[in-house]
Amino acid sequence: MRLCVGSRHMGDGVLSRARPAAPPTPPVWSPSGQISTTTLLFQVLPPDPAMWRLKIAQGGSPWLKTTNNHVGRQVWEFDPNMGTAEEIAAVQKVRELFREHRFEMKHSADLLMRLQFAKDNPLEINLPNIKLEDHDDVTEEVVLTSVRRAISCYSTLQAHDGHWPGDFGGPMFLMPGLIIVLSVTGALNTVLSPEHQREIRRYLYNHQNKDGGWGLHIEGHSTMFGSALTYVSLRLLGEGPDDGDGAMQTARTWILDHGGATAITSWGKFWLSVLGVFEWYGNNPLPPEMWLLPYFLPVHPGRMWCHCRMVYLPMSYIYGKRFVGPITPTVLSLRKELYACPYQQIDWNRARNECAKEDLYYPHPLIQDIIWASLHKVVEPVLMHSPGSMLREKALHIVMQHIHYEDESTRYICIGPVNKGAFYYEQGSSSRYRTLYRCHTGAVSVQYGMGSFRCIECQDPSRISTSTKPVWCGARCTVRFGPVLNMLSCWIEDPNSEAFKLHLPRVYDYLWIAEDGMKMQGYNGSQLWDTAFTVQAIISTDLSEEYGPTLKRAHDYIKDSQVLEDCPGDLSFWHRHISKGGWTFCTADHGWPVSDCTAEGLMASVLLSKISPEIVGEPLCAGRIYDAVNVILSLMNRDGGFAAYELTRSYAWLEVSTCKCIFPCLQFLHGIFIFTYF
């Protein structure tokens, strides 16, 4: 099972074509504390969307590569000629409503998309609205009517290529990486139009906490990681130190009151160093020479879990190059704004291991600090000067080969957004489980395999209620930080390269807009995942014949999104698993099949094959079904569990000793997400 932080919220109302003639009314609050989607859609907004439009399965650029004619691709485009003055005012009204209630309702309701689909796919249903009192009987007729209304409503949200698009946002740390990379490469105003930048600023302001800071995700408490990077993003987007009706000043106050940006986590130190407002000497090492080690060593990056590997890969290249962007007046100003003391007086060696208490979910073990200090003070100076620099150049060359392979294999979408990062819970197989418990505050906490755990909110390990039944076990957190990092690596290698140009149009695959503004998603969508479950749900109602067109479109999407070829070349050399026959979480172009996504895609295909082709289309051929089964079986580990992307390649003891040293940027996640290191 997979849940994205800030997962898709589909609202709580049923679409209706009727709209009262009265002026817009305030939002109605549901028992869950969220604004009624029906009220917002049909009492506040006119039926047409204004200005922004969701484009499905379209290319539009000669720099885009695809295996299936862009099926599943979802991109928002701004059209200055769309929308009347009334419609634009109505959209602004719903944005104001979100901002007014932003502390009570953190999630958007995808109203811009819903408006567009309400016009494109009007709801045609003549069924009574079921309302039952507490003591009324729930008859079969009542249930069937409710099910028909639900499926009819949900069918209007289906895209023409068969999938169900929607918001897959939530994390706050993804957008800053994109803004920084576009800024240092000089592509910010080329890739992001003024309208894009305005909506991004809206989103960042909307999700600022009351104390002035920003969290790791939209529901999180303020952290130095979230606050410093979001503040920097707003400055790069043109906001001044005192703009935002005081929001920038309160953000800066939060940062300085909590120790300044030297207390940011490892990923934050990395991004600030790229921008030029932090010194590389204040970073713990990310040596690219790890890729030169023989594979039989347990610390070889090829043994890392793929998401860790694909983030460490470009990070090690950028670190090895010690890349720093142009030192602009904004960068010089940020050097003054982010720190409690003059920039020239900062002790960068001490800053390497500084971390604000709000971010420190798992303190560094002493052995980790010793290893980092040894690499930093002994190994790095050797590799930065001749003859050691020749070894570094060789390592950087190998790393770039792997980066280009990943880019080509995924059509420059990459495994996730910080290569263009995201988090989701993913059930996995491991001998070391973490267990979620609840604290006295009601916050979820984590018990680690070694018995160390603490409350996310109060940070007090003594106040965890371990008698409470666990709410989740055996989960693994996905960390995605790749097209953005890969894109920067390609630019560092050659600013005029074709590879960099091929990355740029894929930025839009990760951007999504709703009434809270424009966000960067944790994936390029959840297309296959949502479609497969929707098919299974509709078929389970025994109403397949009534909703044949919906199922047929979904069937087409499932068939079109199956991965039909393995990655090119020697898979073992590139540390890749087989792909042919699998399904990804989203689109075929993404190119990284997952065991559970493949299982759900296969299940939906088998169920659809039992229905007449005249209703749902021709079934998946036997050969492709066998290929899917082959992918699933190939991902069974020795302990009987199934891995997600690749078989387990490493050892449990690395969880304690090596992984956190090799990939230190994972440190800030402890306590919020659950990990299984391979």
Structure write-up:
Pfam families: SQHop_cyclase_C, SQHop_cyclase_N. This is Cycloartenol synthase-like isoform X3. It contains 23 helices and 13 strands. Helix content is 38%, strand content 7%. The protein has three domains: 2-155, no CATH class; 174-398, Alpha/alpha barrel (Glycosyltransferase), CATH 1.50.10.20; 527-584 and 595-643, no CATH class. The chain has helices at 37-44, 85-100, 111-120, 140-155, 174-184, 188-191, 194-206, 224-236, 247-257, 266-275, 306-321, 329-337, 348-351, 366-383, 388-409, 483-493, 498-503, 527-540, 548-560, 595-609, 613-616, 622-634, 659-662, and strands at residues 2-4, 52-56, 74-78, 214-215, 222-223, 424-427, 435-439, 444-447, 453-455, 464-465, 475-477, 511-514, 517-520. A hairpin with a 2-residue loop joins strand 12 and strand 13 (517-520). Helix 8 packs antiparallel against helix 9 (247-257). The chain is globular. It starts with a strand and ends in a 16-residue tail after the last helix. By secondary structure, it is an alpha+beta fold.
Shape: globular
Helical fraction equals 25-40%
CATH class assignment of the largest domain: Mainly Alpha
Category by helix and strand content:
alpha+beta
Task: Tell me, rounded to a whole number, the average pLDDT.
Answer: 83
The strand order across the widest sheet is: 9-8-7-10
Q: What kind of sheet is the major sheet?
A: 4 strands, antiparallel
Determine the CATH topology of the largest domain: Glycosyltransferase
Distinct helical segment count: 23
How many angstroms does the end-to-end distance come to?
Answer: 19 Å
Total discrete domains: 3
| Strands, count | 13
- CATH architecture descriptor text of the largest domain: Alpha/alpha barrel
Low-confidence residue ranges: 1-49, 421-480, 657-678
Pfam families: SQHop_cyclase_C, SQHop_cyclase_N
GO molecular function: oxidosqualene cyclase activity
Family: Belongs to the terpene cyclase/mutase family.
Organism: Phoenix dactylifera
